[in-house]
Recover the amino acids of this structure.
């Protein structure tokens, strides 16, 4: 996670300095050479211990080292975000330990009745606090709200309010997630949808490109420091009518037209520092007949033309399978194709069982062995995911929440 997101990644570097940037100065009074400003030289306490800021590329180097030490099956597992229903912490913990997958998405069936119980669920999903799995949720608010206690304003209200209201709502929403140990929010809908009858209208943050862009940027800024932000559904669900849960929506919009309209909210979210970009199962036939989630060209556009350098993740691959088109009926093939196209994580929800993620992992390993997927591409994806996991660990996000703790006076 570098480039545009480095500013946010550096929030964790003081913590990492304890591991890789700690220097102990000789005891005694400071000399003439010790008068440098603390903001550049690090802080020196009474005991003569100086904490030097970790280099800005520390997370990237640690992630690279971590992935280089992984076996091929471990790399394959790390790029899968899976799901099984249930709220039993023991069962969920066993699932994560046995699969070794890099992420888990919480759906409604995983949400208990209260925050304390949900914190137990997320703690169970965190097998290793030093390298926590990415726990994600679709917490948009309003129509798509997994946490029943989230009564904050959602898109239907926010699209008609000042952008500052969006920033405030998503700051508060991200705080709710942080309280229960959820690190990633799939909650920012960057689609442009002007017509109330459109599938995505009630969930979109704007009815025109400019308004949507302003609010998407505000939402990402609001979540900063409490949740890793995701903008979706790239390259834009509003231009492709239809429900992507049951079909593959298509549009003949040209790339030039897209760049002037539906691209703008995604560009704003990327510029604001969004760490995740979710690729929709949407076909812009003038650009690529393949769904964007499987399209190398759309991944190139996101990286090279919009400057995104975070984690590219598919929308639920079960949705693609549910569309019923013969080319997309095999979930393992879909996952391998998605990774080869440029995704860093593949998401499986619809019809997912305890056997789904292991089957995908085995399919990825087989694809590397056969040459269908290069190990270099898999390592690149695994490294991006590892960097996000290490970022959360450095911020203490892998630790179990403490709902009973009293604030410091």
């Amino acid at each position: 996670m570098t480039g545009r997101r480095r500013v946010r990644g550096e929030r964790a570097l003081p913590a990492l300095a304890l591991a890789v940037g700690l220097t102990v100065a000789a005891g005694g009074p400071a000399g003439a050479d010790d008068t440098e400003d603390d903001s550049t030289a690090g802080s020196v306490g009474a005991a003569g211990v100086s904490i030097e800021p970790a280099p800005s590329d520390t997370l990237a180097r640690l992630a690279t080292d971590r992935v280089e030490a992984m076996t091929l099956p471990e790399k394959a597992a790390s790029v899968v975000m899976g799901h099984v229903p249930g709220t039993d912490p023991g069962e969920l913990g066993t699932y994560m330990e046995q699969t070794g997958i890099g992420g888990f998405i919480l759906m409604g069936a995983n949400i208990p009745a209260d925050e304390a119980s949900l914190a137990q669920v997320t703690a169970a999903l965190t097998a290793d606090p030093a390298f926590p799995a990415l726990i994600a949720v679709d917490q948009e608010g309003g129509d798509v709200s997994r946490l029943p206690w989230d009564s904050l304003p959602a898109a239907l209200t926010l699209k008609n309010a000042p952008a500052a209201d969006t920033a405030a709502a998503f700051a508060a929403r991200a705080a709710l997630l942080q309280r229960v140990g959820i690190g990633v929010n799939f909650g920012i809908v960057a689609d442009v949808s002007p017509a109330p009858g459109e599938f995505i209208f009630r969930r979109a943050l704007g009815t025109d490109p400019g308004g949507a862009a302003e609010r998407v940027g505000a939402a990402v800024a609001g979540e900063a420091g409490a949740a890793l932000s995701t903008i979706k559904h790239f390259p834009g669900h509003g231009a492709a009518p239809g429900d992507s849960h049951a079909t593959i929506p298509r549009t003949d919009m040209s790339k030039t037209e897209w760049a002037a309209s539906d691209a703008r909210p995604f560009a704003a979210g990327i510029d604001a520092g969004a760490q995740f970009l979710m690729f929709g199962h949407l076909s812009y036939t003038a650009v690529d007949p393949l769904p964007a989630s499987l399209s190398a060209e759309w991944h190139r556009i996101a990286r090279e033309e919009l400057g995104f350098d975070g984690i590219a993740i598919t929308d639920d691959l079960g949705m693609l399978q549910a569309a019923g088109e013969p080319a997309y009926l095999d979930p393992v093939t879909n996952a391998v194709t998605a990774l080869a196209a440029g995704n860093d994580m593949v998401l499986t929800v619809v019809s997912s069982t305890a056997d789904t993620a292991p089957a995908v992992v085995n399919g990825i390993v087989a694809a590397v062995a056969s040459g269908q997927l290069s190990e270099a591409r898999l390592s690149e994806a695994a490294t991006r995911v590892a960097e996000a996991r290490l970022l959360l660990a450095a911020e203490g996000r892998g630790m179990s929440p403490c709902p009973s703790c009293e604030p410091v006076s």
Remarks:
- The longest helix spans residues 375-394.
- Confidence is low (pLDDT under 50) at residues 1-41, 404-409.
